[in-house]
Amino acid sequence: MPDSLDEALQKKQELRLTVAALRGAQQEADLLSRRIWDKMLALPQFARARTVMTYLDIGSEVRTRAYLPELWQLGKRVVVPYCMAREIRLFQVKKMDELSPGTWQILEPKPEWLSRMDRRVDASELDLIVVPGVAFDRYGDRLGLGKGYYDRFLQRVRPDAVKISPAFECQLVDKIPVLPHDVRVDMVITENYVYRAGERV
Known about the structure:
The protein is of the alpha/beta class. The protein has one domain (5-196): Rossmann fold, CATH 3.40.50.10420. The protein has six helices and twelve strands. The protein has helices spanning 5-24, 29-41, 44-48, 68-73, 111-114, 149-154, and strands spanning 51-54, 77-84, 87-92, 99-101, 107-109, 120-121, 128-130, 135-136, 142-143, 162-166, 187-189, 194-196. Strand 1, helix 4 and strand 2 (77-84) form a beta-alpha-beta unit. The radius of gyration is 16 Å and the shape is globular. The model has no long low-confidence stretch (mean pLDDT 93).
């Protein structure tokens, strides 16, 4: 455990830079993402989930946007995040053409859709959340970009909502420095393994 807040923040930033570089150099990201998604879709927790939220990949992240049609085919209510006033908000998406590049070129709902009250979703409605991150450990601790958006957001979801982070094996580290506001995910799924929070694998 870090001795101080400053030490924790420094270690986090060092890990962020190191792992982001490793992820950026990852070969066959599309193929490995498919393996990760196959593991995720095979989970009983995924089968039971009615409302599924997923981030929309950008850059070298594990791919997600390619699998939205598959989620619709499975009968899932698919929810994607967007940011407003430094807060994650939720939108039910039914077709890819409802999305367009927004802040930082991340896909988000087109402006004309955001006023649709029937597409707004409350965090309490989510059954399963696909959570992004830069680095993870095998116990479910995650390291994001440092803005705290997801940590604040995950504190609003139901206690029984399943939180899953897809990651390449190169994104795993021995231990993520944690602070009181950090929220652990229930599983980290890589191309090789399913790591469950609190379990040593």
